Amino acid sequence: MEFLNDMALFVEVVKARSFRRAAQALGMPNSTLSRRISGLEKEIGLRLLHRTTRKIELTEAGQLYFDRCKRIVDEARLAHEQLGEMLARPSGVLRASLPVDFATIYLAPLMAEFARLYPDISFEFDLTPRQVDLVSEPVDVVIRMGEPASSNLIARKLASVHRGLYASPRYLELHGDPIHPTDLTRHECLRMRGTRADRWILSGSEEEMEVEVGGRFELNSVGMIRRLATLDLGIALLGEGIVAQDLADGTLRRVLPQWRASPVSVYALTETRLLPAKTQRFIEFLRERLQDA
Description:
- With 293 residues, the chain is of the alpha/beta class.
- The chain has two domains: 2-83, Winged helix-like DNA-binding domain superfamily/Winged helix DNA-binding domain (Arc Repressor Mutant, subunit A, Orthogonal Bundle), CATH 1.10.10.10; 90-293, D-Maltodextrin-Binding Protein, domain 2.
- It has ten helices and 13 strands.
- The strands form two sheets. Strands 3, 4, 5, 6, 7, 8, 9, 10, 11, 12 and 13 form an eleven-stranded mixed beta sheet that branches. The chain has a two-stranded antiparallel sheet with strand order 1-2.
- A hairpin with a 4-residue loop joins strand 8 (199-203) and strand 9.
- Helix 1 (2-16) crosses helix 2 (19-26), helix 1 (2-16) crosses helix 3 (30-44) and helix 1 (2-16) crosses helix 4 (60-82).
- The longest helix is centred in the first third of the chain and has 23 residues, at 60-82.
């Protein structure tokens, strides 16, 4: 069964994109690693890698073999972890990609509790909206807002963020309270940049309607929209959890309380269903704590 060990070595070489870097990570001579991979290719009867002096590239057969082997190696590694102490006491570096505003507003207060629960886990967080490649990048889990695009990734729903309309008392004093969603067309609306930034879909007790909105501010930051609303600059469509303290302090007031926008779903995306303990615990923790986001 030596080929199973060589399979694992092959996966490390592809992930490192270099024999030298893989050999350093594995703590073995570069020549030994190269010989083992060459032996694996001879046993299979197909070339798996194109080698040059500067880089390696997968052949068509190599790409297929890597896709299958990576899952096998990950499952074997997970089996060791689940049978060992790490399942009861997760450890290691948790690497997560998070949307900036959701992380700072919702997740930051939860991380102190999670860190206390699991003192052997350390964290590397990348706060970014960009598309992350879970296969080629060193990321364990991606948290994203909205319905995920169809892909081969595993999506686990964590929460639904309920949204309403809010404005400062001063803004409403100057411009009046809207009585019906159609009144929003005459107000400054603080809009989230996107393909439908100028249209809000609102639901009442018995009807749903789409309202055309406008204003001087269109942004890509929920936190900035909230801040501008507290500074009397317009009406904002925000998650209820984001404005809880502002409502308590009186810096924001609910507008059209009988109308709400559709909730925004929050998902955890992973490459596989078979997750190390640190990632499992993180997703389970967020799902439990964010139920009422």
